[in-house]
Amino acid sequence: MCSIDFGFIRDFVKHVREKSSSDNIFCCGEYWEDSATTVNKYLDDIGVQFTVFDAPLHYNFKEAGEAKSAFDLRKIWDGTIVQSRPVDAVTLVDNHDTQVGQALESWVSSGFKPLAYAMILLRLDGYPCVFYGDLYGCGGKNPQQPVTQLEDFIRARKLGLLGPSQLCWLGTDRRGESSRWLCSLFHVSTSQVVLCNGSEGVKTMEVGKEHAGEVWTDVLGWHTGEVTIGEDGRAEFRCPAESVSIWVNKDAHGRDEFSKAK
């Protein structure tokens, strides 16, 4: 859905960059379609680097939040702009149009929002955008509570807890008929981010032998236990049901900035 001709957008972006003598000026617009194929064609037609809001990702978040443990988290990025052209994607969870009572109402469930924000804020690809209403709450006829400790997710990004490497899926935890996929968003030595969209999950992950003996805790405080890194650089990390854990060395710089710092 676009109300401005793509030719005008193309010429406008070219003009601004030419007049500023810089090809690095950030330009963003809203082309709200849930089809990555349609959005990619639009960006191709513009013919210059241009960034759009990742509507397909928003709808994946909505679907995952409604399906809960029935949704395979490995597919959360499928058909998204950030997957196909990360430099052109502004990643988001909700906005003023998707909130309850608005024209494009497709509100992501409150229970899934912490997972969704962990995915966009602790991932290197894309330009994450935080909705004011999720950070401070929504008033009016359809009030919504703010996302719990969203400021700590932002703080984790600010302090560099996201990693420079690619997304890694580390496996599944199976019990009986159920299957819950966990993910380490950034498999690096500085942190481990674990998400679970089912019941409580656990996964053994490697952080590096140089961290042997260190004690790590969840900076969110949602998992109250401690993890000691083994001599082989591996440890067992847990995540509460339908939740997120961000495991970091308890003595890491900036730990005292978190609202539930231990």
Strand content: 15-25%
Number of self-contained structural domains: 2
CA-CA gap between termini: 47 Å
Name of the CATH architecture of the largest domain: Alpha-Beta Barrel
CATH topology of the largest domain, by name, is TIM Barrel
Q: Tell me the major beta sheet.
A: 6 strands, antiparallel
Helix content: 25-40%
Describe the structure.
- The chain is of the alpha+beta class.
- It has two domains: 6-158, Alpha-Beta Barrel (TIM Barrel), CATH 3.20.20.80; 168-255, Sandwich (Immunoglobulin-like), CATH 2.60.40.
- It has seven helices and eleven strands.
- The strands form three sheets. Strands 4-5-6-11-8-9 form a six-stranded antiparallel beta sheet. The chain has a three-stranded parallel beta sheet with strand order 1-2-3, with no helix packed on it.
- A hairpin with a 2-residue loop joins β4 (168-175) and β5.
- It starts with 5 loop residues before the first helix and ends in a 13-residue tail after the last strand.
Q: Could you give the topology of this structure?
A:
Elements: H1 6-20, E1 28-29, H2 36-46, E2 51-53, H3 55-67, H4 81-84, E3 89-90, H5 113-121, H6 132-136, H7 150-158, E4 168-175, E5 178-184, E6 192-196, E7 201-206, E8 215-218, E9 226-228, E10 234-239, E11 243-249
Parallel strand pairs: 1-2, 2-3
Antiparallel strand pairs: 4-5, 5-6, 6-11, 7-10, 8-9, 8-11
Helix pairs in contact: 5-7
Key traits:
alpha+beta; Immunoglobulin-like; six-stranded antiparallel beta sheet; 7 helices; 11 strands
